[in-house]
Amino acid sequence: MAPSDSSQSGSENLALPAQTPIGTGAETALDSTALPPFGVEEVPGHQFLSVPFNAFYDKLPKQLLTSKKPDLSRLIYIAPDDVVSDDETDQATILLSILSLSCPEIFAHPIQSEDDTTVTFPLFQPESRQPEQPPADFGPGTGTQSAGVIGTSESATNSIEGEAESVSAGAGDEIRLNLEPILANLPLEFELPSIPKDLQTEIALPAHLVKNQLKNGRVSIAVAAFCALLPEHLKHLFEKVDPTAEITIPLREIFPKLPSDAVKLREDYELGYSQEAIQTPFTATSEEDAVRNGDLKATLKADTDVQGIPILAPNADKIESPAETEPAAAAELTFPDTFDSHVLQALFMTEEELNLTRTVQKISELPGLRSCLLTTTNGTKLAGKWVDPQNETALPLTLPRLSQEVASALAELQFHSLDGVTFYSGQDSLSIFPANRLLLIVLHDNRPFRPGVKEKIVAVLQELEKIGQTTRQS
Amino acid sequence: MPLINYASREIQFKIVYYGPALAGKTANLIYIHSRIGQAYRGDLVSLATSADRTLFFDLLPLHAEILQGFKTKFQLFTVPGQVIYNATRQLVLRNVDGVVFVADSQWDKMEENVLSFRNLEENLRTQDISLDEFPYVLQFNKRDLQDTAPANYLEYLLNNRKRRVRSFESVAKTGVNVFAALDAVTQLLLRKFENEHRQIRG
């Protein structure tokens, strides 16, 4: 049936005690004093009873049901003609085959004639409902219409999951939405007649209807209830639509109208993670990405003192970033406070005792060079200064990867190993020199290196690599 | 429980990227694959259709030595997000150690997020695993798109439980917070493992 289909009503076959068919005259059957059901829906040309699952679900033969229990607070819609009421007990009875047409999803298979018994349910509202509250309404302001605003209707009942009772909302407890985006969002199968253009009308949805569904990620309302909220001149749009079908209200329209506490998180929570971070193979890459994408931060990421991160194993190796070429973690590359390297002293023609900082400074003093940075291939700056402090942070994060990609591409073309790459840009040039776990980034004049400078840089870098490696092995 | 092979001194953790269809689970693995050096990863096995829909699962094996003396392997899986493939999801979830739940931030995907999250909880329950005690993090993906729900609504939908987990706003295609989420769930795994197997530590 769905509500509109009463052709299969088989009430005449039932042996029911002292029953009065509801809806033999809709005018009397739907009178609220004669029939206090869970709700009465009005759609142009139709009237229905709205009954929550919990009124009858437990009385259904278990063998006929699917294993999945429905939300018992959900409403189904039944045509008054399809039930017979008992005035003395205030109960209504319906054939299972008829009921199954309104909620086929709960039945494991169509009801066969041998299973077609009846089920009886109360017509009154649950006791939890406050008697003084008006039935099935959406609160003050009901039925009122102001300019361009559709008031909520007394006959409208929501289809909220988890809330069977049509609780009366307080004054002003409604959410007004523009009707146009709602109608524009309707599924094509509704096959509505042409919707008036430039529809400026607003619709006032009961706030509790919206709020109680927010947790489901979807807010919807039955066509029957939606129609009741529409102004008269628009109700015809839904004349041919199944009144039990649901209309989804776009969340993007709802959200700006919600009070700030509508999606408030519970306060009695416990943190499901420790504030104290431990280092994982992915920590370094995560931190690199965080710097690179500084605009989007982990929403609940705790501030972590990187230096203070406890490591599960003291010599834990990290998974390398693409820039890394050796399994060893370049971050662990350390240098002695002073170098005992005659090679470096010879290269710079000095007897000065050198260290890492002084060596890099010596490189930057070579003819034509303006500044240089020594980094590891995983982006850790070791020494040097850059003319632009901002780039000093960015360069170690980007150029090692670029260098690695260039080296990989050249390797595929069977070139020899990459000694260096130079980028010419305006008056400056940028060169990068990889050496196993080290990378030297140099800013220099926009002209070829002076004779011997490039060779000296490569030689110094190779010596530094040896010194770093020696330190690590010791 | 991770697989521990004392003979070969190997530990294997299984992390599953779970979430609704087209939320970006495979994109996570593709990015991770692109950022991990060849020496530390296997090939990304992906069974996807031309419409980017995962048919069975994606698998990315990673390895490192993080627990002293033990070669540590991480197997990253994705599941097909489409509702009809629940049997596959249940299969992939077997013996899972941690989950990165990838939610789609677009407004019209909110219900799918909720349903997928409930599906995760149900499927874990079939293995007698309670989500309230299970290591997982949330990733709110596609934050670069225009029509996205605010993060606080996604928190309300997916993280409004007694136990609040870490969540990350991400753009999997460009790698924003991809490793942060992986790092976070790995921390949970290692911490849990450490608590349960203190004797393994040197």
Q: What does the model show?
A:
The complex is a heterodimer of chains A (474) and B (202). Chain A has 474 residues and is α+β, with helices and mostly antiparallel strands. In chain A, 23% of the residues lie in helices and 18% in strands. Chain A has helices at 26-29, 96-102, 179-184, 207-211, 223-229, 232-235, 251-254, 283-292, 342-347, 356-364, 389-412, 453-473, and strands at 20-21, 40-43, 46-52, 75-78, 84-86, 91-95, 118-122, 149-150, 174-178, 202-206, 219-222, 246-249, 270-271, 369-376, 381-385, 421-425, 428-435, 438-445. In chain A, the strands form five sheets. A five-stranded antiparallel sheet of chain A has the order 15-14-18-17-16, sandwiched between helices. In chain A, a hairpin with a 2-residue loop joins strand 16 (421-425) and strand 17. The model of chain A is unreliable at 1-37, 126-172 and 295-331 (pLDDT under 50). In chain B, strand 3 and strand 4 form a beta hairpin. Chain B has 202 residues and is α/β, with parallel strands linked by helices. In chain B, strands 1, 2, 3, 4, 5, 6, 7 and 9 form an eight-stranded mixed sheet that branches. Chain B has helices at 25-35, 86-93, 110-125, 151-158, 178-196, and strands at 3-5, 10-18, 45-48, 54-67, 70-78, 98-104, 136-141, 163-164, 167-169. At the A-B interface, strand 13 and helix 8 of A face strand 4, helix 3, helix 4, strand 8 and strand 9 of B. Strand 13 of chain A pairs parallel with strand 8 (163-164) of chain B, so a sheet runs across the interface.
